[in-house]
Amino acid sequence: MLVVGLVGGIASGKSFVANCFHDLGAAVIDADQLSHEVLLLPDVVAWVRSKWPEVIAADSTINRKKLAEIVFDPVHGDSQLHDLESKLHPEIEVRMQELLVKFQAAGTRVVIVDAPVLLKVGWHHRCSRILFVDSPFEMRVDRAIKRGWDRAELIRREAKQTSLEEKRMIASDIIENHFSAEQTRDRVLEIWNSWIKMDLIENYQD
After folding, report:
1. Residue 168 parent element (H or E)
2. What's CA 89's distance to the chain center, in Å?
3. Contact (Cβ atoms closer than 8 angstroms) between residue 130 and residue 3
4. pTM exceeding 0.85
5. For the segment 179-203, what is each residue's pLDDT rounded down to a tens digit?
6. Angle, to 10 degrees, between the axis of helix 77-105 and the axis of helix 42-51?
7. Lowest mean pLDDT among 88-102, 148-162, 164-178
8. What is the enclosing helix (H) or strand (E) of 206?
9. Whole-number Å distance between alpha carbons of 81 and 72
10. Helix, strand, coil share (%) of the chain residues, nearest 5
11. String of DSSP letters for 40-101
12. What pLDDT is recorded for position 74?
């Protein structure tokens, strides 16, 4: 099974690229989605309540927006983010491994792992290849604004991740995602076909 780590800057279009690969037959592991699931676990909610009771909503769930404001605070956020990641990442990794085992058993040939902290926490060692999605900074700012962020928020959050230079340097494949959606799909197909030609995707059938 070919396991591909998907990396890039915030709002570079990684989810779109992952969906393109999914359309070609790949399975996708979305680490952000896994983190949302982990934040619903009773023991995690209890742990968060003990540290930041102000982020617990009336229905006893975690208000992720308020939690993000704390851990990405430009002055005091670093230690808070470290504490949160130390709690969440092991739980996310367990679920990631369970999915990899499930996909392997099902005969899945390609799995795309979309995880912003892939390199930061060492999950790239589980991957056969690393795919870097590149997009100009101003284009990423425009996309981030549509999420409700501003330029400063993007810069602040991206500073907590592995640098773009390191991500690009470790990549085995690169997608320049600053053209049309159709051109990006064509590039995804080009990479997919290159994996087939290199026999990285075993027993592939059209």
Report:
1. helix 164-170
2. 12
3. no
4. yes
5. 899 999 999 999 999 998 888 886 5
6. 170
7. 148-162
8. none
9. 7
10. 55, 15, 30
11. TSHHHHHHHHHH-GGGB-TTS-B-HHHHHHHHT-TTTHHHHHHHHHHHHHHHHHHHHHHHHH
12. 85
The rounded distance, in Å, linking the Cα atoms of 182 and 16 is 11
- Residues 154/11, Cβ–Cβ less than 8 Å: yes
159-181 pLDDT per residue, tens:
888 999 999 999 999 999 988 99
The single residue listed with the structure tokens 């023991």 is 43
Q: Which amino acid is at 140?
A: R
Q: How far apart are CA 7 and CA 131, in angstroms?
A: 6
Report CA 54 to chain centroid distance, whole Å.
27
DSSP-assigned beta bridge partners for residue 30:
114
What are the C-alpha distances in Å from 51 to residues 55, 71, 113, 131? 9, 12, 30, 36
Q: What per-residue string of b and e applies to 58-77 under the rule 16 or more CB within 10 Å gives b?
A: eeeebbeeebbebbbeeeeb
